[in-house]
Amino acid sequence: MQTGVSEIEKLASVKRMHGRLTRRANRGKRAGNTMSDTHRLRNPGNVAHLREDREAMLDTDDPALWYGLNRLLTNYWADVDHNGGSQAHVFKMLEALYAVGHNRFEGAEKIRAFYARRRERGNTTTRHLVGNLQVFRHDARRAQTVGVMSLYRADGRPPFQWVRPPAMIADFEAQCVLGDDRIWRFQSHILRPIFVGSDLPASISIDPQRL
Prior knowledge:
With 211 residues, the protein is α+β, with helices and mostly antiparallel strands. Helix content is 39%, strand content 32%.
């Protein structure tokens, strides 16, 4: 009998949640909010607007898609941290955009040149940490991931003592495409710095026009 009561309570809770979501959606429609969530999330406008729109759009419950984009991000940053970004361009489409703040590195060759210049700056240790990851599917071959990236950097080799705060904490948004080889790649990868330390990251201090 106790099990039966518990199941009834769970069903009632689900129905109440569904009712609240339905009422929220109806309020948005009555307010004339006709622009698609996908279109707004692609807009590289202010971060607050991006956050508000994400609340109206549920992220995917597809574990394979979530794993695929999480794997893309972690493999990309692992190459940057452990291999100096020498293969970073292969994670992106040929026409891909990589942007950090106002700096825009457009196309695979420009991205390759950026990481080559970054390696020339000497012996620097970095760790890029990704968190608060959300994934949104657009169609069978296009998806988007958003989250937070924290960058720690120091000159020399680890371990380091008396380290400084993170060099940068940034919101990021990445549009991703599934290729014919069944591999996800970045079509665009945009970082919007929120906190930047005195030790500027290379992605901010290197001028794309001088590459």
